[in-house]
Amino acid sequence: MKNSSLIWKILCVTLIAMGAYVTVADAAKCEDVRLLIKNSYKTSDGTPRTIKIVDLKYYDYDKKKYRNKCILNTKVSVGDKSIVAQCLATIGSDLNVGYSLQLKYVGGEDTKFKVYFKHYDTSWSSKKSRTTGKFQCIDKMEVNYEIK
Predict the structure, then answer these.
(1) Tens of pLDDT along 102-138?
(2) Cα dihedral angle (51, 140, 110, 36), rounded to 10 degrees?
(3) Which residue among 17, 63, 64, 83 sits deepest, i.e. has the most Cβ atoms within 10 Å of its Cβ?
(4) Which of 115, 32, 100 is CA-nearest to residue 66?
């Protein structure tokens, strides 16, 4: 009986330790990531167009789901590059902006971005998306992506 009590205690301690590890691993952030978008977009007839980045998601491979990232709508003229800016907080009526992204749950792990944009002709188009290739998320990295 003493052995089964000891085994039970060891099992409980092990499970608690594993739970703490999972919580710490799930909370890993990838901080100060810069996403630089180059606009090489052309309509189906080959006409280059200005685009506006309107939404951004990043993929969490462990949880098998995309996570949303609040960003500012960013216009990118034909051939230009622009940094995607993150919404940080609303202070009164002003929006606090960060020019690097803080990505939760994917620090040191593989991820990818899904970039949503609209192009301008005589008005803004419906939302379109493009997905970057997979990359390992490391603090202070820069991701360059060309929308074609």
Answers:
(1) 899 999 999 999 999 999 999 999 999 999 999 999 9
(2) 10
(3) 83
(4) 115
Domains of the chain: 29-147 (2.60.40)
Calculate the dihedral angle through the C-alpha atoms of 124, 85, 26, 133, rounding to the nearest 10 degrees.
60
DSSP 87-143: EEEEETTEEEEESSEEEET-TTSEE-EEEEEEEBSSSB---EEEEPPPEE--TT-EE
User: CA-CA distances (angstroms) from residue 113 to 60, 91, 130, 131?
Assistant: 10, 28, 8, 6
| pLDDT higher than threshold 60 for residue 14 | no
Buried-exposed string 1-14: b where 16+ CB fall within 10 A, e elsewhere: eeeeeeeeeeeeee
Threshold 0.85, pTM exceeds: no
- The model's pLDDT over 46-105, given as tens digits with 9 standing for 90+, comes to 999 999 999 999 999 999 999 999 888 999 999 999 999 877 655 555 555 567 788 999
